[in-house]
Specification:
Isopropylmalate Dehydrogenase; alpha/beta; 14 strands; 356 residues; binds 3-isopropylmalic acid; homodimer; two-stranded antiparallel ribbon; 10-stranded mixed β-sheet
Chain lengths: 356, 356
C-alpha cells in the first residue's frame, strides 16, 4: 500500500481553514483508494516571519524537499506590507519555488457546470464552458533575474533582467506539449518576439521542440494580443505556454474570465515527481477565521496532487466529481446563488467527503 | 489664423484609406473653426522597407520633427514577417517613438453610447459605460533597454533589461496626474513592486509626485491583479499609469473590454507640444484596399490631435460629437448591427464631414 509524505504549508489568513478541509478530503480519499498519507507542517510567509523573522526558514525547505508533495494554503496580508521587499511573504513564495526547482506552473482556467453563469463574459461568447490550461514558467525570467539600483545621467534608476536559457525554455515547452497531447492537441506559445530578444530565443526553442510533437498544432501569439483574445474569444485556447511574468498576468486574467476564482487550483512541478499545490486565490485576511472561506480550490489542488505527483488518477477524478456534485446545491458565501444552501468552510469539506 | 503643418504616415494595409478619410474630416474642421492645415507625407513601416530598405528612413524623422503633429495610419503585415527583428515594421514604430521622444502614450478605453452592446462583458458589470484613460510610458523600460545573447552554463541564453530612472517616472507620473485632475481625480499606478526593483522605484517616485496633487486619489495595484480587475469591474478605473510593457498588455485588454477596438484612438506625446496620433487597431492586411475599413479611430485620433497638440478643443469636441451622431445609424462592416446602414470607409468619412 502506497504511503505518501505530505508537507502542509498552511500559511496566513484563511490558509489554515482551507487546508484543514482539504486534508479531511485527502484522508477520506486515502481510505477509499487504499493508500496512506502522513502529514508534516512547516511555516511559510507571514506566519514564518512572525515565528522566525524570515518568510522561508531553512527547515521548511528541508521538510518540503523530503516530502512526496507540498500543499500550500495562502500567504501574505496587510500585516507584513511594511517588510522590506526581500523579507515579505511573497519572497517566501518565490524562494520555495526556486529552492524546490518548481519550474512549471499549471494553471487551469475552467468553468464548473453549476457555476457557468459566474463568468463576467457574455453567454454568447463563453457559452458556459471554458477549459484552458496555462503553463507558466516559474523559476526563470524577470522574477528571478539580476536586479539592482544604478544611476543614469546622475539620477537614480533601477533595473531588472528578463533572461531565459535554451534548456529553461526546452523543459517548460515539453511540459506544455505533453499536456497538449493529453488534451486537445493545441498549444499557443505567448511572447513579445517582435521586441524582446528573450522572446525570440523562446520562440526559436519552442519551434524546435515542436518537431518532437508533430500531432500538436502550435501557434504563436504576442502577449498584448493574447490579453485581448482571452476576453474576445477564450474558447479558442487549449494549452498556453509562456514566461513567468506573462504567465502571471495572463493566468490571473483567464481565471477572472472563468468567473470562479475561489474554485481554481494550481500545480507547480519540478523535474522530480514531487510538486507544490495551492489554490490560486489569496489569503483573504478580511474573512480569515470566520469559517466562511471556500475550501474547494484547495480541495481541487489535492486532486491535482493525486494526479500529477502521487499517481492516483482515480482518486483525483473522484474528488473532482464529488466537488461538481456538491456544488449543485451547496455554496460558500463567495459563490452563493439564490436557491442553493449557504454552507460554511467546514460544512463544504464534510459535504465533499460524503460525496466521495 | 493658425496654420498647422501635419505629417501623414499612412503606413501599410488599410493605413492609406483610413488616413485619407481623417484628412477630409480635418480639412472640414479647419474651414469651420478657422485654421489651416498643410500636409506632408513620409514613409514608415513596411512601405518604407519596400521603398528604402529600412522601416524608418532619416527623412521621415526629419519631417516629423519639423511638424506640429503626426498622424499615423497603421504599419506592418505578413509581407514583412521574415525581416530580421531590427528591420521589421515594428522597429520603425519603436524608432519613431524614440526619435521624437514620445514618452507618454494616452490610450482611452471608452464605450460609445450607440455601441454599448458591443462589450464582451456582461451588461450588469459594464452597465453600458466605460471611460478609462491608460497612460503608458512609451520610450523606456524593457522595450528600449539593453538586450542581447549570452551563455549560461555553456548553453545559449538571451536577455532584456527593464530599467527606469527617476526622471522618466516623474514625467510620466505628472502627465497622468494632470489628466486625472481634468477627469475624475482618481489615479491607479500599476506595477509589480512585490518583485521588481524597477517597480519599487516606480512606486516610490509616483508616491513622491502625488504630494504635488493632493486632490487626486492615488492607489497602487499589481499588474496581475489589474489584469483581473479590468475584467471583474472595469468601472472602478479612471486614469491608470504604468510602464511600457504593462501598458502594452493592459491597454490592449482594456480596449477589447470596451468592445470597440475599431473606434479607439491614441496619442503619443513628447515634452514639446507636438505629438503622434494613431488608431490603436492594426493594419488589417486582409481587408486592405477593399474600401470597407472603419476610419473612425483615425478620425478620433485627429480629434485628440486638435485637443492635445493644436489647441483647438472646440474642433475636437465637434468631431467627437459628429462621430457619435453618425454612429447612431451608420456602420462600417466591423461594427454593423441590424437596423443600421452599412457604409464604406469613404461614406463614413463623408458622413462625419456632413455632421460637422
Ligand atoms: C506573490 C507573487 C510573487 C506571485 C507571483 O507573481 O508569482 C503571485 O502573484 C502568484 O502568481 O503566485
Ligand atoms: C508593434 C509593437 C512594438 C507595439 C508595442 O508593443 O509597443 C504595439 O503593440 C503597440 O502597442 O503599439
Amino acid at each position: 500500500m502506497a504511503d505518501y509524505k505530505i508537507v502542509l504549508l498552511k500559511g496566513d489568513g484563511i490558509g489554515p481553514e482551507i487546508v484543514n478541509q482539504a486534508v479531511k478530503v485527502l484522508d477520506k480519499a486515502s481510505e477509499k483508494f487504499n493508500f496512506t498519507v502522513e502529514y508534516d507542517e512547516a511555516l511559510l510567509g507571514g506566519c514564518a516571519i512572525d515565528a522566525t523573522g524570515v518568510p522561508l526558514p531553512d527547515e521548511t525547505v528541508a521538510k518540503c524537499k523530503a516530502a512526496d508533495s507540498v500543499l500550500l494554503g495562502a500567504v501574505g496580508g496587510p500585516k507584513w506590507d511594511n517588510q522590506p521587499g526581500n523579507n515579505r511573504p511573497e519572497a517566501g513564495l518565490l524562494g520555495i519555488r526556486g529552492a524546490l526547482g518548481l519550474f512549471a506552473n499549471l494553471r487551469p482556467a475552467v468553468i464548473f457546470e453549476p457555476l457557468k453563469k459566474a463568468s463576467p463574459i457574455k453567454d454568447e461568447i463563453i457559452g458556459g464552458s471554458l477549459d484552458i490550461m496555462i503553463v507558466r514558467e516559474l523559476t526563470g525570467g524577470i522574477y528571478f533575474g539580476k536586479r539592482g539600483r544604478t544611476e543614469v545621467d546622475g539620477q537614480p534608476a533601477a533595473w531588472d533582467t528578463e533572461q531565459y536559457s535554451v534548456p529553461e525554455v526546452e523543459r517548460i515547452a515539453r511540459v506544455a506539449f505533453d499536456l497538449a497531447m493529453k488534451r486537445n492537441k493545441k498549444l499557443t506559445s505567448v511572447d513579445k518576439a517582435n521586441v524582446l530578444e528573450s522572446s525570440r530565443l523562446w520562440r526559436e526553442t519552442v519551434t524546435r521542440i515542436s518537431k518532437e510533437y508533430p500531432e500538436v498544432e502550435l501557434n504563436y501569439m504576442y502577449v498584448d494580443n493574447c490579453a485581448m483574445q482571452l476576453v474576445r474569444n477564450p474558447g479558442q485556447f487549449d494549452v498556453i505556454v509562456t514566461s513567468n511574468i506573462f504567465g502571471d498576468i495572463l493566468s490571473d486574467e483567464a481565471s477572472m474570465i472563468s468567473g470562479s476564482i475561489g474554485m481554481l487550483a494550481s500545480a507547480s512541478l519540478s523535474e522530480s515527481k514531487s510538486g507544490l499545490y495551492e489554490p490560486i486565490h489569496g489569503s483573504a485576511p478580511d474573512i480569515a477565521g470566520l469559517g466562511i472561506a471556500n475550501p474547494l480550490a484547495t480541495i481541487l489542488s489535492v486532486a491535482m496532487m493525486l494526479r500529477y505527483s502521487l499517481d492516483q488518477p482515480k482518486a483525483a477524478d473522484a474528488i473532482e466529481a464529488a466537488v461538481t456534485k456538491v456544488l449543485e446545491n451547496n455554496r460558500t458565501p463567495d459563490i452563493y446563488e439564490e436557491g442553493t444552501n449557504k454552507v460554511t468552510c467546514e460544512q463544504m469539506g464534510d459535504l465533499v467527503c460524503e460525496a466521495l
